[in-house]
Amino acid sequence: MSVAIIGAGIGGLTTALALKKRNITFTVYEAANELKPVGAGIILANNAMQVFRHLGIHREIERIGNPLCFTTLSKPDFSPLTRVDLKPFEQEFSVQNHTIHRADLHKILVDAVGENNIKLNKRLKNVAREKQQFRMEFEDNSQETYEYLIGADGIKSKVRTTLFGYEDYRDAKQLCWRGVTEFDIPDHYKHELVEAWGKGKRFGFVPLRNNRVYWYLLINKSMGTLSSSPLEFSGDFLPIADAVMRKTPKEKIIAAALYDLKPFAYWSQPNVCLLGDAAHATTPNLGQGACQAVEDAYALYKLLEKNDLKTSIQLYPKIRLKKAHSIVNTSWKVGKLAHLGNRPGIFLRNTIMKATPDKTNQKMMRNYFQLSDF
């Protein structure tokens, strides 16, 4: 049995680790020509940490990551609209939410999977089904043939567009800047994510380990362009927003327009499946994008307990579709709600948020953190 995984991102590598734990031989193909530190911060919510506990790498993540105990949505002056205590979930699920630099998580996964199982500089050019196998052609003109194929190659997935013929993207009409910098953040923020909602824009930050801070700024597309400096939009927020962004070297700031993938129901065909952003790319408004890719890998891992790979690939979407699509759709709505541009709408939104009972927010979080039943 031969298995090819396209994409060495978090979803692809977690899937590779899941297969390794089930003693299934695989090869990961990655477009980049080297495994170098990239990206900004990432939130590993309780659901992802539960999966990493099952796969045996949660202790390493806990050693390098920073525990996250509270999430706060606020006004631009950082006065809270909602504040969710995450500590009860630590007791319920026996793991903590953590923040970590994406590059640090990537290294943990690469070490667990084994670099010898990853082939670099392999950007997929084309893939075709030939009888019972898949013939893959890469941009370096090399070719490989495999019996099974897993597409973890992101929102612009070549596996999806070629074999599934689906590329219905949605433009969120928002721009995002992200960065990580060293910053001496006040002690009361050491284990808290704060996201401040302004008029057509928002700013968020969360501490990482070793005095580093991951921050992000989003605006409505109508307010600027990707060539704009994020500092142009920091004026409505407390001075800490401006200070954190100024401390970040310009070349370390990542700018991108936000898109997602309109939900669709066909993630698998005989012997091939999609996972992560290739199957259900989402806007980053719930901190669940990478976590949902990790859950995809866990679904395959659990299914392989009692089924062969062929059957597991067929069953996996039935387990994951409902939750993943709920995350995508909820995140889309939250993004629109967060970026209201009229004051009456903002006032009404803020009033409702402040009046929402804590138990309602806790219930919503629990739905995100609970892994699927098998």
UniProtKB/TrEMBL annotation:
UniProt domain FAD-binding: residue ranges: 2-304
MF-aspect GO terms: FAD binding; monooxygenase activity
Keywords for the protein's UniProt record, in alphabetical order: Monooxygenase, Oxidoreductase
InterPro entries hit by this protein: FAD-bd (IPR002938), FAD-dep_Monooxygenase_BioMet (IPR050493), FAD/NAD-bd_sf (IPR036188)
UniProt-listed Pfam families: FAD_binding_3
PANTHER family hit by this protein: MONOOXYGENASE, PUTATIVE (AFU_ORTHOLOGUE AFUA_6G14510)-RELATED
Protein name: 2-polyprenyl-6-methoxyphenol hydroxylase
Species whose genome carries this gene: Paenimyroides ummariense
